[in-house]
Amino acid sequence: MSTLVIHADSAKSKIDRNIYGHFAEHLGRCIYEGIWVGEDSPIPNTEGMRNDVIEALRELRIPVLRWPGGCFADAYNWKDGIGPRENRKRMVNIHWGGVVENNHFGTHEFLRFCELIGTEPYISGNVGSGTVREMSEWIDYMTFDGESPMADWRKENGRDKPWKLTYFGVGNENWGCGGQMRPEYYADLYRQYAAYVRNYGDNKIFKIACGPNEDNYNWMEVLMREAGPYMDGISVHYYTLPTGVWSAKGSSTEFDEQIWFNTLKKTLFMDELLAKHDEIMTKYDPEKRVALVVDEWGTWYDVEPGTNPGFLYQQNTLRDALVAGINLNIFHKHSDRVRMANIAQVINVLQAVILTEGADMVLTPTYHVLNMYKVHQDARYVETSLESPVYEMGGEAIEQISHSASIDDNGRLHLSLCNLHHANSAEISCDIRGMKAERVTGTALTSGEMQTHNTFERPDAIGPVEFSDFRVENGRLFVKLPAKSVVVLSIE
Length: 492
Ligand code: AHR
Fold this sequence. Notes:
It comes from Cohnella suwonensis. The chain is of the alpha/beta class.
């Protein structure tokens, strides 16, 4: 049996609820079909946006939603997506499948969708192919409450009052699809573009710079050195590829124990990655004023057979649930620096929480984990220490248990536990310092098979169930975790 010490008597930094953010790009069937079906669709909708999706996302309490990309953002001109829909420009989505983008979902629709699901917008501006003026006019259009050509245009388009916009990204992946830039060049461009991202009235913009790809520590160094004082946040992107090879990432549903293990091991790398980036940031920003924003994370597999390779449509199994649980535990641990994260992507793309097919919708195992974990949003992170049993496979070893804990405003302790082992259960004795466990409830997500997933034919093949394999003795909590499971306990 392993012992987990939980220092409930010394709660630390707040787990920013924005760590539970999402990402919606004009890519494949994320926006069109996933969110937008149009007002005349037989699929029940509110102002063109599907009701089933709105309801499911409201339940998830999504704090922030990033849009319109991704790579799409650095090819996007916001002016193509406003005004009467029948007059909007049609264009080719050069990054994703070469399909026609009719611009029916633009700024007004996105910001309305955010209102409908109760989330804050996070907009990515175009540095790769857009001008400083375009970016500055977009901010004016959305947030200025006075008289200006842009604010007047917004009013003509049916929105009198400005929107509240807090989060704005100055470019996306400018080291790659967003312009193939060197960090020195982008750092200067960032300073220039960001200078024109203005605060109008009491709308205060939180400016997010394009940060490194994965472990490009030099990019982080240069950006923090040259542009640190001009930013509020800096992004980092890290995807879990089971093989680590882009040309053969593997199937989302067909994999063996070794690939299961490799996937989870690759996910655990997020911890080292964040620690190293934080270390560099701390050299320039010891107060931790600048947030590290993991605005793209999740699994990336080969697309489902027979689907458009440019649409990045993949299924989502119990393995993805573990990936989500592990990443969230890591974000909690780094919550003094990581203050936003956005899983890629919300619907029908990569590690989606929702899949749709015509009028049907299924919730994925990843959805259920985010729903179980939402109790950590804005709670205070609690230090823990665990001597985890080891999970060995093919000559490599990782810790078998990933976990994190927090205390909410009502003094309730929440403990998230992921048992990574594909076959072995795990017993844990919890020594909770500063608190005597009296009432404990739990929820678990697990299955007999690693590959279990929800389909349109069997939408409830895997879902959360009540968990009761624990006992309390003299204030100490003993838990038996099933193999390959995610468990969240509420302790009072
Ligand atoms: O999420 C899919 C793509 O991955 C995004 O468009 C891009 O930013 C990243 O490379």
